Amino acid sequence: MTSSQNTAPEPHDDLLWLEDIHSERAMEWVRARNTETEAALFDDAYYAMESSLLEVLDAQDRIPMATKRGEHYYNFWRDAVNPKGLWRRTSWAQYASEDPQWQVLLDLDALAAAEGIEWVFAGAQLLRPEPDAPYRRALLRLSPDGGDAVRVREFDLDSLDWVDGGFDLPVAKTNVSWHGPDALYVASDFGEGTLTRSSYARTVRELPRGGTLERAPELFAVDVEHILASVVHDPTPGFERSIGRDIIDFYNSRTFIRVAGAWEAIDVPTDVGVHLHRQWVLFSPQTPWEESGAVHAPGSLLAAELDAFRAGDRKLVTVFAPTAHTSLESFDFTGSHLLLNVLRDVVSVALAADPANGFATTELELGAGLQSFQLTAVDDLDPTCAQDYWLTLTGFLTPTTLARGTLGGPAPVTVKSAAHRFADENYIVEQFFAISDDGTRVPYFQVSPAGMEHDGRNPVLMNGYGGFQQSLTPSYSGTVGRGWLERRTPDGRGGVYVLANIRGGGEYGPDWHRAALRENRHRAYEDFAAIARDLVRRHVTIPARLAATGRSNGGLLMGNMITGYPGLFGAVSCGVPLLDMRRYTRLSAGHSWIAEYGDPDVAEDWEFIRTFSPYHRLDEPLPEGAAYPPALFWSATSDDRVGPVQARKMAAKMLAKQVPDIWYHEALDGGHAGASDNGQSARMLATSYEFLWRKITE
């Protein structure tokens, strides 16, 4: 904060004691609320729903999504027998078969039992071997409670055991990268002064095998006000290099490469994303970028040869340019082409760009309709399949299919198909556009029973997020099908599910996102409310039969629906939410989100932040005749990203104001996901669905 900025006043808060997450007083309050909620909801109907959802989550015929490394295909799997999960691998012949046989590398349930710690698998990073050699080592990330803090341990893929005397890093919010077989780049908590205000690593050290973190030399560091520092080693043969990133905020960063023992910055504005691949450097601007007399639109993708760009040649090739209806979701390289995953009015389109032909693009014919698909390379370094890609296709009524294709070859061949989890043939999918307060057309998807009556009596569940440039796209969910669509009201009506593509998300690229940043945050909430009103206008439902759900930033959305639009909804489920926007930067990782919401310590920022801080909006009088809708707030004690305290305080404040029908439930572990295994996920989902369904149909 500069000296010219005034400090915002600190509102009085009687509930700060709930911010002491593990204090006996706070946990006693949590246990009491859990008991109340469970006594009200957990009856035979609830347990039947929980069991039905768990059956979906534990189903043996789910697609075991895999990552190819060398000759093997790696997968992490949870089911009823292995609730914590198995890390395993198999061959391509086995993977493509109907009933693959897997080699179990690590049994997380057995590990937890042996070590007395409830380990949650958080990923593996394999060491790239020399050409033609097998993969032999991996770094495994294990969370003790499902939170973001992990222990990193070195695993031997031959002996299937921990490496004796190998790398073993203590629990922290750690990121690591192999730097050859005997050294790591480690970004972690090294003690006082080594974390940013966002609670992430400020420095990166190089840890040699046999060395200690305390003695490891510092390699890279960033300002304490920035989000985090990271260094990764790119082991691609012929393009080996170390890459440093200074993540300033969510939308600004600087990228460096290590040259002759020093860091050389890639010279672009901080809001231009930088992506390195072999000889290429790709750029993705967040705002209009003027370079060499040309202005490149936000959301475009540009390419240059890295060495030429470093030497001062600023000639850029436009690989993708967005339109009013299209945005770039992601991209990935095969051995010779660049795959582009594009949204066209929130429906998937795939392009292949040819670097050898000036990145000319060709649209791939992969399907149509209101569906989503994603293309990713199988293994661009394996000459036997360097042009192969995975195609993952899904839709609200289309169970996920995994196919494999080859660029320039025949149509992709289906490898795995998920089973139907509910009677999806009885429903239809439609896309509509609501008009928001400022005239913007906002898309949303509606999944409803075929032949649904438009008489305003249908039970509807709206889901939204609207932040951090994250897009919500069509996908198959057996839990939504069973938890909402297949349910029946006493008069025989089935559920309707609505997915809202509001501003703040990435559905139409950076401009769609930036339209709801900071002082414009209200546009996301106006969009969601506009969709709710459109459902009423179209006689799909009425407010009393309209439920809404969202988590994390979507939980902040729900908090603003409760306090800003109480008459629009019959019930709200608010999960792992941000709600106290005056103190959010001081709680867990909140400081990292200032670019999204603003800085509440700055008086000028607080003036607009307080208008979307649900915790403080509770102090504003409701319009005459209005009442808050029934609300369930839920969180997890071990969530070290948002934390449970904001949900706790919101529920406690509403209860203190004697607002009726306010409920709270907190999982004692599970991290920001709210669940660390399928059983916890089923409980969390069933609690939310049961609460909402009962409130809008009773």
Automatic annotation (TrEMBL):
Superkingdom of the source? Answer: Bacteria
Peptidase S9A N-terminal domain location? 12-187
Keywords from the named record: Hydrolase, Protease, Serine protease
Q: Name one GO biological process term.
A: proteolysis
Q: What is its EC number?
A: 3.4.21.26
Q: Name one Pfam family in it.
A: Peptidase_S9_N
* Cellular component terms per the entry's GO annotation: cytosol
Q: What class of enzyme is it?
A: hydrolase
Q: Does the keyword Protease apply?
A: yes
> For the Peptidase S9 prolyl oligopeptidase catalytic domain, which residue ranges apply?
492-696
Can the keyword Hydrolase be found in this entry's annotation? yes
- Which positions are tagged coiled coil? none
Give GO MF terms, alphabetically. oligopeptidase activity; serine-type endopeptidase activity
What is the name listed in the Swiss-Prot or TrEMBL entry for this protein?
A: Prolyl oligopeptidase
Tell me the organism.
Paeniglutamicibacter cryotolerans
